[in-house]
Design a protein that fits this description.
Chain A: Keywords: Cell shape. The complex is a heterodimer of chains A (273) and B (167). Chain A is α+β, with helices and mostly antiparallel strands. Chain A has five helices and twelve strands. Chain A is 28% helix and 30% strand. The longest helix of chain A has 21 residues. Chain B is built from seven helices and no strands. Classes of the chains: A alpha+beta (273), B mainly alpha (167). At the A-B interface, α2, α3 and β2 of A face α1, α3, α4 and α6 of B.
């Protein structure tokens, strides 16, 4: 017993180092595996407060650019509104009675990163705005990511620029679907994999979300085909997609609240049993 | 001792804030960021309690991780650097360190460069290894570590010299 104590006291620095490094290593390993809730994340009041203060100064620098984006979006929406053919035999329905499947919450990006293997954004909406894990995040141009951790006022978003993210996407014209991955090479490009060799792919085709998961509704923009190659196995295409979004200058984003997510999750849990 | 405690506390907070608000948004050439919070570990008093030093380095790394959503990579790299720092001290400063009379404020410039570069390169190698966590991407790892190290070393030396105490 005496010897054990002596050993611990003699090597106390080394043992403490092993303990602390072990903790750090386990946190790292945990962060590399998908969808385990992390203990250490930037969705808390300390980091949110600091980023909020910085953002309240920093947002003035690109006001002009953000205004242009907003005007463009308004233009598209107005055009869509004016060109909708309103059929006269529509019966008036009280809209509050209709179950809305998707709701939109706007949010501001407090922190954005695009140069590590797994990138996260921090946004200023959280549990009190009823944001949950697995809600989709988009801008007016295209998709951004998926909500990962939430605190009361803040959430972290797993960016599509991440090794961990797999998003169902398809070619807009031919409806051939595949999964969207990122090879860490450039923040402007992602890869669409597992697209059947029999699909008609042409450069410049639009890639949209596939709608096979509960996260993103069908048909949201992602990007355009820049080039495509045949996979090493020879059966599928690997398509380089140039994103519509500039992931390096995100400021205002929208969160898509899916009101059916609980039901879908329960159903999927039943299937997995 | 009290002024040393106060100056270390202030250094801890200022370096942490500067790291997460300024240095992580530089993104030179798209991916190069300096990690100046290592200055805290570099300049921590040599004679103080090593256990406290390890815990402080770990906490500093963990706070940076919290801000950057990077799991535990900065905590791991920081605590590793804190543990092996005596090796670098001995290598760079030699007898000065052996006699426990080392003061960073009035040390020789050449030795300081050796010490800072050694520590920073070591820290960055561990950091990017943990971040990428895949030995098959060793070229990417070395590239990131090299460029970030150059940036961090030059910025750290500049800051250390700029804020060294007046004689």
């Amino acid at each position: 017993m005496q010897q054990i104590f002596n050993f611990v006291i003699r090597n106390k620095t080394f043992l403490l180092f092993l303990l602390l490094f072990g903790i750090a290593l386990s946190l790292t390993i945990q962060s590399h595996s998908y969808h385990k809730s992390q203990f250490i994340n930037s969705a808390n009041s300390l980091t949110g407060g600091v980023y909020g203060t910085v953002n309240s100064i920093g947002q003035y620098f690109d006001l002009k650019e953000q205004n242009t984006i907003l005007v463009k979006e308004n233009k598209t929406l107005r055009e869509a509104l004016l060109n909708t053919v309103k059929t006269s035999h529509d019966t008036a329905i009280d809209s509050s009675l209709i179950d809305k499947r998707f709701e939109i919450v706007s949010a501001e990006v407090y922190k954005n990163s695009y140069n590590s293997p797994n990138n996260y954004l921090t946004i200023n909406r959280g549990k009190r705005d009823s944001i949950q894990q697995d809600f989709g995040v988009i801008t007016s141009k295209g998709i951004v990511g998926i909500i990962d951790n939430t605190s009361n006022k803040f959430s972290t978003v797993l960016s599509i620029l991440s090794k961990k993210s797999r998003i169902n996407a398809k070619l807009k014209t031919s409806n051939q679907s595949g999964s969207l991955k990122w090879d860490e090479a450039s923040p402007y490009k992602v890869q669409l994999e597992d697209v059947s060799k029999f699909a008609n792919v042409t450069i410049g085709d639009t890639i949209v979300t596939g709608g096979q998961s509960a996260i993103f509704p069908k048909g949201l923009g992602i990007g355009v085909v820049e080039k495509y190659t045949i996979d090493a196995s020879g059966d599928t295409y690997v398509i380089q997609v140039r994103l519509f979004n500039d992931m390096t200058t995100l400021q205002h984003v929208y969160i898509i609240k899916n009101n059916d997510i609980e039901e879908l999750k329960t159903l999927e849990a039943l299937n997995n049993e | 001792m009290n002024s040393s405690l106060a100056s270390n506390m202030i250094r801890f907070i200022i370096l942490l804030l500067a790291q997460v608000t300024i240095c992580n948004n530089i993104n030179l050439l798209g991916y190069i960021n300096p990690y100046i919070y290592v200055i805290f570990i570099l300049l921590f008093p040599v004679k103080s309690n090593r256990l406290l030093f390890l815990i402080l380095a770990f906490n500093l790394g963990l706070l940076v991780d919290m801000f950057l959503d990077s799991g535990g990579v900065h905590a791991g790299a920081s605590v590793f650097l804190a543990f092996v720092r005596p090796v670098f001290l001995k290598y760079a400063f030699g007898t000065l360190y052996d006699h426990q009379t080392l003061k960073f404020g009035n040390s020789e410039f050449g030795a300081l460069i050796m010490y800072v570069s050694g520590c920073v390169i070591f820290h960055h190698l561990i950091l990017f290894y943990l971040e990428i966590f895949n030995i098959s991407q060793i070229i990417l790892l070395l590239k990131k570590a090299l460029f970030s190290s150059i940036f961090t070393v030059s910025l750290s030396l500049l800051l250390i010299l700029l804020f060294r105490p007046r004689k």
